[in-house]
């Protein structure tokens, strides 16, 4: 966003989502609500009122980086050993039947000698990840030089509403890509046949279908397929539905869906409780929802993954992994490292 925009009233992310339809009903035809909802919807939201140009989630000028700022330091939060221990504890709780899946995240905090450029980060992410949705939205007042910005390249569509039609594309289950075409294809087939990854994916899809059923008279969810990003193969299911009531807007649906088990876990309340207890990380808007809604109730929202939080010279890069029975702590740590490559590659000088 270029320039200040008023925040949607309500404070928390959930309250802002609920306030959006009434706010837009009294606004002009060219008005949209856009921005970010945090992972924990009880935390302050960052949805703002803008004009139709902000349908592009990152409506700021973008520029390819000539050189990245020089690094002054880096710090993993939590430390790798603590992350592996948290995964082991999550597996213990899964074995007791307390929950079926929980997503545990970690971060890498980078401090540069000069401020990070949001337009340059967004430009590099867009160029390197053309099939993803580039996001660049302010979490704080964007005119404040110390404002935090959420910047990333999300491969995951949380929800799109166009009239009575809704579509989603949840991702869960992944494996690193290979530069060798034959090995890369083999890994994709390995993911499609992985019992552990298909179970993880099925948990996500079933929770989404359960959340959609009260709103839709028809839902279609085919078998999962492969979805490629530069770094990873993912299992993806293209879900579509038809709304029963046209008064149900995209923000109504986001409030019902978010956070999905792709970023939280299942059962939802138990998984969120475990995350708060053992993750050791302030996610902020990471793994939240980023997007827009117009006065007709149409909108498009992506899951805030493959992203970082920028504030001056500080950049926090996030990644998470879905923990289910059969997960391995060392492998999950490695998976989060691969996922961080999306942001880290964008810091490379060309």
TrEMBL record:
InterPro entries: ADC_synthase (IPR005801), Chorismate_C (IPR015890), IsoChor_synthase (IPR004561)
Enzyme class name: isomerase
Domain called Chorismate-utilising enzyme C-terminal: residue spans: 81-339
Record field: compositional bias (Basic and acidic residues): 183-194
Location of the region described as Disordered in the Swiss-Prot/TrEMBL record: 170-194
EC numbers on record: 5.4.4.2
Protein keywords: Isomerase
Coiled coil: none
Gene3D superfamilies given in the database record: Anthranilate synthase (3.60.120.10)
Name of the protein described by the UniProt record: isochorismate synthase
Biological source species: Kineococcus gynurae
